[in-house]
Amino acid sequence: MERFMQVVNQVLRSHKAPKLHEFGIHYPLDASRGDLIDIWVAFAIAFKVSKLELNFSTNQVPIWVCSFKNYSFPLDFFDKTKRVEPYLVQLDRVFSVCAPPLNVDNGFECLRELILKSVDLTDEQFETILSSCTFLEFLHVLYSSRLVNVKHAVPHMKLKSLEMYRCFQLKKLEIFAPNLVSFKYLGPKINISVKDAKQLVHACMRSNWETWEFSRTNSLGLPNMQRGDFVFGQFAAYLPQIEHLVMDASSFGRTKVLDNGPLLYNLRHLSLSSLNFADGPFGILGCYEMVASFVKVSPFLHRLDFELYPLQDPELRRIAVSPHNYLKEVLVSGFSGNKLVVDLIMVVFDFAIELEKIEISTAYLGDPSKCTISLKPDDDFLVRKSIEQLHGRMPAKAQLYILDDGL
């Protein structure tokens, strides 16, 4: 760790340009190194950074490397009376790095992308970041354990993409971003309000495993979303404009909203996941029911992704699925070769009469936060045998692509 910090400090000393396009730290540092991280962030701000990434996640390293107390952004960075000047004084004194003068009104005027992984934010800090970074276009937050009731009521006119992953204490999220194009969420089934997002075309609404879900009422006294309401209740107004929708079987709930709602003419790409331990094998059956419903109301659907977690083999009860003329591509990740998954793919072969390509991967690719560790199937022979079986049933125009080496 000491060696890593020395390297970062040396990089800071060697920087000569007046502006900094991108500054990123990818190492499992925690709050005990906060003073040094503060100086690094102040350096990036002073040099008008466009993309700032702090990735202190421990996913790819042994768990003993660092503690679990996350670094937290100091609000001084956003205080017009304090600002970052004290940190820049330390930067000059300790590292002999002289920073350029800051814009007094807004030191964050150049920041366009902010990625925070294993960085703790309070509700106040989250709101302050959006209020201060008025030109911010992309915000990604992963593993922030102190967010509870996030609200940004003033319209943020530049924000185009918001990603909130695995903030497990979060109970409510309200965002007002009229030009938001992409919203991605993975976490508990909370109350979410995305206001007046008329440009929204990419939506990912993934919930936790059911065994981690909260009760019907959370600590704020608000009802937690139950199954179908999580997506179809909170995002019903946006569904007709969505082009790419990502959701899981636990959020379907056999809802009739698709049957009673408008046709989804804009939906081109649908990604469905069955990462749901409480429902066990019926997670995949839920995906089957979702496909049957979505195919009926999405006449121009082009690509269908299944992200399937290895499960047991219940029987697949056939549902009538109307023929679809526009579905061209299918991806199946988490393919283990079991009978249920093979039967599900066969169903797709039956109704996707213009299918051109199917991709299969044994790795699970359904975690938008990219934190899930891929598990190798126990039985390679079963995988190969199942792939041979699929080859024999493929539509005439379709090509099969295996994304794994060695299969």
From TrEMBL:
Ranges for domain At1g61320/AtMIF1 LRR: 12-366
Q: Which Pfam families match?
A: LRR_At1g61320_AtMIF1 (PF23622)
Q: Which InterPro entries match?
A: At1g61320/At1g61330-like (IPR053772), LRR_At1g61320_AtMIF1 (IPR055357), LRR_dom_sf (IPR032675)
Point out the coiled-coil segments of this chain: none
In which domain of life is the source organism classified? Eukaryota
Q: Where are the transmembrane segments?
A: none
Task: Please report the name of this protein according to its UniProt entry.
Answer: At1g61320/AtMIF1 LRR domain-containing protein
Per the UniProt entry, what species is this protein from, by scientific name?
A: Gossypium klotzschianum
